[in-house]
Amino acid sequence: MTSDSSSSPSSSDTEFADPNPSTDPGTNSERVQSQLESMNLSEPSEVSDGSHTDYGGGDDDDDAPAEVALSNANEGGFTNGRVVREDLAETSGEEGREASLRAEHPVEMEAGEEPPSPTSSGYDGERGSSGGATSTYKADDASEDEIREANGDGDTASQHEAAWLPGKRHVHEDDASISWRKRKKHFFILSNSGKPIYSRYGDEHKLAGFSATLQAIISFVENGGDRVNLVKAGKHQVVFLVKGPIYLVCISCTDETYDYLRGQLDLLYGQMILILTKSIDRCFEKNAKFDMSPLLGGTDAVFSSLVHSFSWNPATFLHAYTCLPIQYALRQAAGTILQEVCASGVLFSLLMCRHKVISLAGAQKASLHPDDLLLLSNFVMSSESFRTSESFSPICLPRYNPQAFLHAYVHFFDDDTYVMLLTTRSEAFYHLKDCRIRIEAVLLKSNILSMVQRSIAEGGMRVEDLPIDRRLRQKASSTNNQGQDTGGPDRLRDISVGTGGPFGLWHFIYRSIYLDQYISSEFSLPVTSHRQQKSLYRAYQKLYASMHDKGLGPHKTQYRRDENYTLLCWVTPDFELYAAFDPLADKAMAIKMCNQVCQRVKDLENEVFLQGASPFSW
Amino acid sequence: MATSGNKNINAKLVLLGDVGAGKSSLVLRFVKDQFVEFQESTIGAAFFSQTLAVNDATVKFEIWDTAGQERYHSLAPMYYRGAAAAIIVFDITNQASFERAKKWVQELQAQGNPNMVMALAGNKADLLDARKVSAEEAETYAQENSLFFMETSAKTATNVKDIFYEIAKRLPRVQPTENPTGMVLPSGQAATAVNSSCCA
């Protein structure tokens, strides 16, 4: 597995094993030094083969016992795919066979039509595969063009969020449509009787036959006393997740890791639990043929927005949340009133700006998991209905208590900033409304709302703002990212403008372990288009997966170079740093730069992180 | 408000009805005088308040716009409990929504406040060509069940203010004290009493 050839195992390093990480900044900087020394000492050999694809596939081999009782043949995903599908035809009869044959086609078409993409994301392939498609594709492309044009303004992350339209696309499709079969990534939720519950593309009801096929695959393997986790068929991965009576399936040729795809299914399931609670299982106990899809009526936008976030929101793989950068005193003021509100019998009170936290508080001993926070903010942000007035809605926090509903009071102060108050009491609406009025008074008095707008306009940390060495910058801009085939206009712009921050640093994500929070830099040149950003996130995801690979143990550092990026990852007991550099960046300089980034984040930690958020530190 | 003789009445009003009948659209037209062609599905329930001046009183409506989605049905009692008025909304172009409305009426008659003022709104009245539920059918049903019926259109604003105004007029003026024996009985008798007193 290539990813691991370049990473240094943590071995017997005492620091890494330290169960009580110190939070003292003084000792931290010492640690930074010593870590860096150790980085230099144990400098890993570079991987410059440029084959991201290798680690996509490699990861899954470690799950061998889980990888179905299919066959030992690992060389051809095709073989695997066929084995399953033939078995399936026996069990599910004529309809199943038909569906399975149809399902097989896209695999062959995709594999035949597209030369293996040299880029890491496989996203380029998406464009390639759109040849036979309809006008709907044009709409997609058009929206990306818009994003590209808007990029000049800087705040790209939020802009592509804004340009992305929520809701279900391509409802007219079913598994017989060529366009449907060519989609890069499908998500399905179905019941264990094979009834469709959710499909990312196409009408669930028209996909009943396809759902039955998926169900047949799963139950066939289960009947053999085993569990199907992953089927590989050429470029495609079919990932299964069984949650009691609910089956979740992802069919993807995006070259993401098995672990991350499975994590995405987990989040999808969590989103469903957030809407319905786990007590939905009881409906299946009473009636195995229970049709659950009506219960999710009107939530397409919630799911499609979550699926979209898999490609832009690092919280989906970091399992951490991020804060809106704002002055420490303002965050404190907001935190104080939220804490007061919690003391009056509210379980959680959160002040949010889009997907970012301004401040939050929880009742004593109540702790909010970052994944719940992600699902909650996705739910609120994707449902237009919350913006029309005050809302009071039952929601369930799957990590807090998957069995029970909480009641959420949601109120938007403006287009971006909103408060969420969660309680266990269904009759608490008027109390929560009063709490909101108190919170609003504080926000107005301390001018927080306009400071929030200012923070949005200014954006977060920028690599350009880090201390700069101009000589290295020159070098960086001359090399650029020619390996990335992103089409004409982009490339022209990339070449014509200088790139990124000092020493060829393009982007970074810093995750504080003990705060459960991360801060990511704003995207800067040359990573400007939505496509490039998505591709970088995919590279980070793989980096994350290989660093947290269970089979090979946790790693401390990884330095990886391909034609798109130089990626550097550094994991300590206190933090994780993921940084992307110019592919020709100097390694020693890159390591120095990482040290600087960490220092910079520590300097700003009171503004970029929510400190002392009691719910998380228990 | 020092206006002598004027009473301030707080009235909780709940809107119930099938998905897509137009509950939110009615409320938004009434409260904000807005209309959007593709109103997003309501999550849980949305709360609005709006004040109306009616003859001798000022009525402050606290409006619960509930979600029509099936998963929220079990929560409905939370919203109609203690409500002084309800508007049951159906879509005149959708027979199923009318059947659903009848179920809501039954539920309110069985579980709700017996003094509740109930209105039946046949919404989307602008879509005459697509009509599936005739005005006569709805009117007959309304009379049988002592509701008052209006065809409304949130899109054109037809009858939207009127239906809220009519409810405001019918609200019992002194809620707790005026409770003659006949009013305690559920449904039929109670509502006819309201009818006779208001529809002169």
Task: Summarize the structure in words.
The complex is a heterodimer of chains A (about 625) and B (about 200). Chain A is α+β, with helices and mostly antiparallel strands. Among the domains of chain A are: about 5-80, no CATH class; about 330-460, Dynein light chain 2a, cytoplasmic (Beta-Lactamase, 2-Layer Sandwich), CATH 3.30.450; about 465-610, Profilin-like, CATH 3.40.1840. Chain A has helices at about 1-5, 15, 25-40, 50-60, 75-115, 125-130, 135-150, 155-165, 180, 210-225, 260-275, 280-285, 300-310, 315-320, 330-345, 370-380, 430-445, 450-460, 470-480, 490-495, 530-545, 585-605, 605-610, and strands at about 5-10, 185-190, 195-200, 230-235, 235-245, 245-250, 350-355, 355-360, 390-395, 405-410, 415-425, 505-510, 515-520, 555-560, 565-570, 575-580. A 6-stranded antiparallel sheet of chain A has the order 1-14-15-16-12-13, sandwiched between helices. In chain A, strands 3-2-6-5-4 form a 5-stranded antiparallel sheet, with helices on both faces. In chain A, strands 8-7-11-10-9 form a 5-stranded antiparallel sheet, with helices on both faces. In chain A, helix 4 (about 50-60) packs parallel to helix 21, helix 13 packs across helix 16 (about 370-380) and helix 15 (about 330-345) packs antiparallel against helix 17 (about 430-445). Residues about 1-160, about 475-500 and about 615-618 of chain A have low confidence and may be disordered. Chain B is of the alpha/beta class and about 200 residues long. Chain B has a single domain (about 5-170), classed as 3-Layer(aba) Sandwich (Rossmann fold), CATH 3.40.50. Chain B has 7 helices and 6 strands. Chain B has helices at about 25-30, 75-80, 95-110, 135-145, 160-170, 180-185, 190-200; strands at about 5-15, 45-55, 55-65, 85-90, 115-125, 150. Chain B has a 6-stranded mixed sheet, with helices on both faces. Chain B starts with 6 loop residues before the first strand and ends with a helix. Strand 9 (about 390-395) of chain A pairs antiparallel with strand 2 of chain B. Chain B: It holds the Pfam family Ras. Chain B: Belongs to the small GTPase superfamily. Rab family.
